[in-house]
From TrEMBL:
Annotated signal sequence range: none
Record-linked Pfam families: DUF6596, Sigma70_r2, Sigma70_r4_2
InterPro entries in UniProt: DUF6596, RNA_pol_sigma-70_dom, RNA_pol_sigma70_r2, RNA_pol_sigma70_r4_t2, RNA_pol_sigma_r2, RNA_pol_sigma_r3/r4-like, WH-like_DNA-bd_sf
Descriptive protein name: RNA polymerase sigma factor (Sigma-70 family)
Every DUF6596 domain range: 188-288
Organism: Nonomuraea jabiensis
Amino acid sequence: MTVADSHRAVEAVWRIESARVIAALARMVNDIGLAEELAQDALVAALEEWPRKGVPDNPGAWLTLAAKHQAIDQFRRRDTYQRKLQEVGRDMELRQESAEAELDEALDDHIGDDLLRLIFTACHPALPAEGRLALTLRLLGGLSTAEIARAFLVPEPTIGQRISRAKRTLADRKIPIELPPPAELPARLASLLEVIYLIFNEGYAATAGDDWIRPSLCQEAMRLGRVLAGLMPAEPEVHGLLALMEIQASRIPARTARDGSPILLLDQDRSRWDRLLVRRGLDALRRAEELGTLGPYGLQAAIAACHARALTPEATDWERMAALYRLLAHVTPSPIVELNRAVAVGMAYGPERGLEIADGLRDERALREYAHLPAVRGDLLAKLGRAEEAAAEFRRAAELTRNVRERDLFLERAAALSA
């Protein structure tokens, strides 16, 4: 294996295993910043050693053990070795154990709890939303600061500052790296799911820039969702979120033309939808339903399933979708949910009914700069034959959006109606 091949192998292993390595170290040192530094030291050691000795049979365990050795050395240098050794227990006496015992320790049953602790800490509500997003992608997605910056179209120093501030906040507030107590679990889980879905949404419908979608962000969010579903198999909303993301992601191959321009849902070639993702999403939705009452993500997944089960737009069960949106609006009242309900009602019962709901949202402060309110109104007005009003709404939508592809789409709709 060449040096270049070894480095590629190290990078691939790091992307897959970094979260587990950092999680195991965070349990040991109770400091996310220090845990990440130790893991990075192990990565440097791998880059130096693997080209000479070859990639080990279990590279994840190798990185974990190398990082733990670094931690032990740090404790020694700080004259706190004996105290720390007692804290982490006999299983951490790595220097005295055989290589086989070390490997077993690296693969022990703590790993599930370790990852859960890391996920909940990275998504702690004490952190601002942008800090939670950046820290989650860094620690759990294995993405570099530069990769996160490119994904969100933000300068790299800005992302670096967000990550640093998030870690500093966790340290300054002495937030323990632990699972939340049972009484706090629902609120903390909601924060965690929100972060994962925000990552997915930024990939599925980019808020700014030249690209309509960024599939890599969707992939990262779905990977995190699958990890979480494996760690918390009895939580219906975890499966609901995973179902929602996988069903929506199934449409990605059909959402853009060859030139990258967007193709709206009702105009998509449904034969290009990823049927494997649809199947996985529907399975996750069934699992959520079996576990209990559907929450906000489960209800959104059930709405997405109405599209996924229909071979053509005409076959969509719009009445069921309108009813599901009404239920979702009851569970989580939101003007955006109401706007989506306006679309479903317009399809199920006619554009007049849909426009009535959309018109009732024009004074909502949260939607004043939201491009999709005038876009929905424009679509409903066009169906009613009110072309001039519809064109004006699409031009308004084009002014509000920060996404170049979306702006072009709205302007094309306006031009076609004006013509």
